[in-house]
Each structure stands twice: as C-alpha cells, then as structure tokens.
Amino acid sequence: MSKQERKMGQPSQEVTMSNCLVFYRYITTLNSGNIFMLFLTARFLSVYYNLIWDCDETYNYWDPLHFLMYGQGTQTWEYSPDYALRSYLYLFVHYIFIYPFKFLITSKITMFYVLRFVFALVQSYTDTKLFEGLKKLGHLDRQTFQYTHYYYLVLNLTNVGMFLSTTSFLPSTFSLYLITYAYSSIYQNNFIRSVFAIGLAVLLAWPFVVIIGIPVAINYIIQKPIFDFVKTTAISGILILSPLILIDSLFYGKLAIAPLNIFVYNVLDSSGKGPDLYGREPFSYYIKNLFLNFNILFPISILNCFAIIYLYLKNKHLSKNASLTYLGMFLWLLIIMTRSHKEERFMFPIYSLFLINSSIFLAFFSKFLSMKHKIFKIIPNLVIFIHALLSLSRLLALLFNYSSTIQVYAKLNNQDVKFSSSHLNFKSEINVCVGKEWYRFPSYFFIPEKTEVHDWNLRFLESDFKGQLPGYFRKAVNFGQVIESTRHVDRLFNDLNQEVVERYVSMDKCDFLIETDSLNDKEFSEKAKINWRSLGKFRFFDSVQKYSFLKSFYIPILYEKHVKFTYFNLRIRIP
Fold first, then answer.
1. What span, in angstroms and rounded, lies between the C-alpha atoms of 568 and 257?
2. Would you call 541 helix, strand, or coil by DSSP?
3. DSSP code for 504
4. Percent helix, strand and coil across the chain, each rounded to 5?
5. C-beta of residue 397 within 8 angstroms of C-beta of residue 552
6. Cβ(387)–Cβ(296) under 8 Å?
7. Could you tell me how far CA 458 lies from the centroid of its own chain?
8. pLDDT, tens digit, for every residue of 526-552?
9. Angle of helix 63-70 relative to helix 88-98, nearest 10 degrees?
10. What is the pLDDT of residues 395-441, one digit of tens each?
11. Angle of the 108-140 helix axis to the 32-49 helix axis, nearest 10
12. How far apart are alpha carbons 367 and 370 in whole angstroms?
C-alpha cells in the first residue's frame, strides 16, 4: 500500500474508532457549559451522599469553621498558639463563601451541605478547564491524543476516588482543586495561572505539594526566560503570604507563618515528635488504597511511562505535557509512599493526575491496538465498564457500611427527638456524649442550634482510645471574643499525643449518648447503671463472616448473606 493510500485510509480508521467509543460522538458536540454540568451532576451526588472519612476533617476544619460562624466548636492542639500549625486564612477562604447564607438559612446541617456544594462547583470548574486542555492536546496531535479528553471525562465521572475526595473539607482536597487547575494551565500554556495555582496550594493549603509543582516550574522555564519564572513566583508568594501572615498573626496573637510551622513539625523536627505519633503503615498501604479507589486505572496510570517513552522517541515536543504530568504523579508517589505515616487523604492532590495518565495511556494504546485488529477496539469500552463497575461496587459498600455515622446525628436534629424527654425543657446545657466512636463525629454542624434557653454541647466519655482528644474553643458571641478565644493557650494541649483525662465527663452528665452496640434498652441500662431509652438505631458495619473483600466491595446476595452489622444507637437518658 502506498503512503497516499495509507493517508487516505487514516480518516476511516478514526471514524471507526470514534464509533466504537460509548457516547464519544455525543460528547464531542457538547460545549464547555455542558461539560461543566456533567461534572457538577457527579459532584452533586458526592455533596449529598459522601461521608466524613477522617476525624481531621471534623476537628481541624469543620469545627473551627463552625466556631468562626457560631462561636462554638472543638479544636485540635494544632490550633494552640504554642504550635500554630493551622492557618485561619484557609478557614476564612471557606467562611466568606458560606457566611452570607447564615442570614438566609437557619439549619446548620443545610449550611454544611451548602459549603459542600461550593466544593462541587470549584472542582467541576477545574475539571472542565482540564478537559478543555486535554481537548486542545488532541487537536495538536490527533494521531495520539485525539481521545484523551473523552477518557478523562468518562473515567472522572465514574471514579469512586473522585467521589470521596472532591467534597471533603481538607487541605489535600483544596490542593486537588488547584493542582487540577495548574495542570490544565500547562496544557493551555498559561504559565502565570499555573504558577499562582501551585503557590496557593503550597502556602494556603499544604506546603508539601510543592513537589507536584516541580513540573509546572519546568514547563515555565523551558519556554520562558528563567527571570520571568522567578518574578512570577515571587509576586505570587508575596500576594499569598502577606494576607496569610497578617490574618494568622492576628488570630494567634503573635507572628505566625502556619505553612512554615507545619513543614518544620513534619520534616525537620528531630525530637521524636512528628506525624509518626499518629500511626505508621507499611509500604503496601497506599498500593491497597489506590487499588480500592482507582482499581484497574492504578496500574494503567503507572504503565503510562511506556507510552510516554514511545511518544518521546516519536516527537519530543508533543510528548512534553504528557511527560510533565507523569513526572508530577511519580514524584508525589516517590515521596509520600516512602513516609512511614500514611493517610488516604495524602493521595488526594494527585487524583486528577492518575486520571490524566490513565486517559493518555488508553488513548495511545487503544489506537495502537485498533490498527492490529478490529476486535481490539472493544478494549477501551471494556476498561471503562470494569472501572465503573468496580467503582460502583466500592461506593455502595462504603455507603451501606457507614452511612449511619451521618444519619444518627441528623436524627438528633429532628424536633420530636431533641426534646423527647420533658426534663430537657428545663436544662440550659444539654450534653451529647460520644465514647469510642468520637472520631466518627461529623462536626458541630450536626449538633442542634443554640437557642436562648438551651446550649448544646459535645462531650467525650473515656474509652479504649488513650491518645489526645480534641479540646474546645472558648465560646464567643462577637468578633472580639473570637480573637480572645483563638489567642487563648489551653495548657492541656500537648504535641506528644498524650491522653488528657480532664477532657472526659462521667456518663451521668450526658443527656444524649451516641454509640455503637447491639443491646436493647434494658441490657444497655443495666450495663451503664443509668436508665436510657433508644430514639433510633442505624445499621453499621461490624464484620465479614466469609469473603473479606465484601468489606470493600458490594456484591448482591453475597453481601447480604455474609456481612454482619451492629447499630449506631441514639439514646436519651431517663431521669
């Protein structure tokens, strides 16, 4: 066959491939607004159904924000002026979006979901910008990258990891938004925006993501004079650090640079403190976690290095952006996976990079195979189907297992529950107590609103946990008292994760109790030596009798047969 004949045959090949991809022709007709709405629809499901998976999200972010808005909440030792590891500017960025709704909405639970919806809007916007960047890449090299934006959209919409991460109130999620935006700017050659986005992620959210910013710097330097990069970085740093230092110093009552403090604590401290006090995990921890949240996309994204090598040999210029994206993912994996203290949320910043690398590999590999034999054209759809099915199975297992952690606190806010015992009408302070399940508390946004007569409080009971529990902000009714509270040094706080017994209350001080058990009212009252009445119980995962994978994946019939449950119980004390 002549070269001319091969060229003439190429469009036919592309048309055939396009016909094989599910919804491809429909997606290509959508404008940016339509794509944004697709992302927002998926994120909206996360707004409503996603849970709080990490107690750091509650006690380091939701509750301090609740304190700024309502004058009451818990805090960790990291907000003590003695340590000043957390930035109040980070909280204020969220505060300004939700505060206006305070005068329109009386329900604090609704306010919780309003802020989550803001998260969904932001992530949908950054995903749309990245989709546009990948689409532009496809126009530059149709032979290799034509379908990359399609794969990114479909895989993103069906990925359980994105469902879990994008509506969480965490610096790692905030970093995900900004890194997604920064890398979209790489694909669209918007150098200043990419640098500023990384600067926000590093200084306002999480300083360690500077590692992921290295490819952004490389992209800038190889296309622009290095002086331009230094100038842009310096201006971005000044614009971000100036309000950060000003606001944090105001709230802490002393000069405070939170990103520097947290970097020193986690990296430079040699006194035996540091993050390892809160747990050490084996190297396999992240491998298992990434398989759960990305299933077959995890190895596919790693394998993308081979596609990049091929592309580099073919065209160094066109392979640049793909190489930089892989480098960002690789550097983060290299640093984070070798640290002994591991958390699922630490991987959030590169979730979009996993999807980009998977999309590039699928776009390249599917076209390569389709030229070998037409039967191989089914592979991309098969990958999408398997990924979506495993993601759905994973998500259903999580929701069926743990949704009661939100449901039980939502029940507490029902009018017929809050005052279901007449003695509460005469109490000024009503205590909601938690014991061993303290780390599943979803935040003060789920504690009933304070009234002129009743003041609702969260209290801790002693349990098997012997580390340091959160403390409390001093209650405040105006801005002056807020500042006094944030500057107050609670001498009970320590940075050694040592138990503080003064945080505990006795059970007779509790009006409501939220705990997991399978006891009836009589059995529980005899055990507690206090009369309690159940107001509602919600199914909660206990164990798996057979097939341990059923804890992580929902499979009909097998799940119902082999998974055992206990209950999250909401009880009221009977005087």
1. 41
2. strand
3. B
4. 65, 10, 25
5. yes
6. yes
7. 25
8. 888 889 999 999 999 998 888 889 999
9. 60
10. 999 999 999 999 999 999 998 887 777 778 888 899 999 999 999 99
11. 140
12. 5
Assess whether pLDDT exceeds 60 at residue 136: yes
User: For residues 370 and 235, which has the higher predicted lDDT (pLDDT)?
Assistant: 235
Q: How far, in whole angstroms, is CA 426 from its chain's centroid? A: 41
Strands lying side by side in the sheet with 563-573: 455-460, 429-434, 512-517, 563-573, 532-544
What dihedral do alpha carbons 195, 201, 207, 208 form, nearest 10°?
-90
pLDDT tens track for 105-116? 989 999 999 999
182/232 Cα distance (integer angstroms): 14
Cα torsion 459, 462, 465, 467: sign: positive
* Residues 385, 370: Cα–Cα separation, whole Å: 18
455 touches 481 (CB < 8 A): no
How is 116-175 classified by DSSP, letter by letter?
A: HHHHHHHHHHHHHHHHHHHHHHHHH-HHHHTTHHHHHHHHHHT-HHHHHHTT--SHHHHH
User: Rounded CA gap, 77 and 495, in Å?
Assistant: 7
Q: Which residues contact 102 (CB under 8 A, 6 or more apart)?
A: 69, 111
Locate 199 and state its tokens: 């600067």
**What span, in angstroms and rounded, lies between the C-alpha atoms of 203 and 504?**
36
What is the phi/psi pair of residue 570, to 5°?
-105, 115
Q: How far apart are CA 31 and CA 20, in angstroms?
A: 22
Q: d(Cα 435, Cα 442) in Å, to the nearest integer?
A: 14
pLDDT, residue 311, reads: 77
Residue 477 one-letter amino acid: V
- Total count of residues recorded for the chain: 575
Dump pLDDT digits (tens) for 456-486.
999 999 999 999 999 999 999 999 999 999 9
Q: How far apart are the first and last CA of the chain?
A: 92
Give me the amino acid identity at 154.
V
Beta bridge partners of 572: 512, 533
**Placement of tokens 């002693």 in the chain:** 462
User: What would the DSSP string read from start to end of 387-406?
Assistant: HHHHHHHHHHHHHHHHTHHH
By the 8 A CB rule, do 425 and 419 touch? yes
Between CA 107 and CA 105 the distance in angstroms is: 6
Q: Are 355 and 297 in contact (CB under 8 A)?
A: yes
CA angle, 537 then 543 then 547, to 5°: 140
Tell me the CA distances in angstroms from 219 to 43, 182, 223, 235, one per residue in order. 30, 11, 7, 18
Q: Between the CA of residue 314 and those of 141, 309, 319, 440, 563, what are the distances in Å?
A: 12, 9, 8, 52, 52
Non-local (6+) Cβ contacts of 398 within 8 A are: 51, 160, 164
